[in-house]
Amino acid sequence: MNEWFPHDLPWPATTQAADGMPRRAWSVAEIEAMVEAGIIDEHERFELIGGEVVPMSPKGARHEMVKAELNEHFQRLHVDDYRIVPETTLRLDEKAFLEPDFCVFPRAISPGDMRGYDVRLAVEIADTSLRYDLGRKPGVYGAYGIPEVWVIDARTLVTHVHRRLGAEGYREKIEVPPEGEVVSAQVEAIRFSFATLGLRPL
User: Which residue range(s) make up the domain with 95?
Assistant: First the structure.
């Protein structure tokens, strides 16, 4: 057990700098080195945005059920030219990485070499993190040129689709109800409907 981040803590300690005080920006390489050295527990969930560590809430049972059903469905799809990879670290640049639930990127690229500009579609499944995933997160994805983002509300099963990326962000934002079919504009073979998958809103 790591003495700095014991497993029995429900949430990592957080701090908030005083207004106007400078903050030190961490790099992806520094964070990875701290994980390797055991300073940061490898099981701790967080993202790095602009050099700032953003803790992520624990994934609940509903989130995991939705993710498992989608993963089984996605892996049955015949998408020869693309990988659909769950829970892989998306390194955006030297000071940012995200942990989307699914990334879609060309099969010729190995997951370890994937960068933001390689991703055609990012999928987030949100439960307690819905406000964050619909607020700041699409802005981060858009800033790194990811053309399509889906944010799925794990409770209502509404899929918030962000498309048509422009200078001011995603120009098209639609909500697809659970009985509707969600189809990727980037890779048409990637599609699903929660009604077909047998999942129902809470």
Answer: 61-197
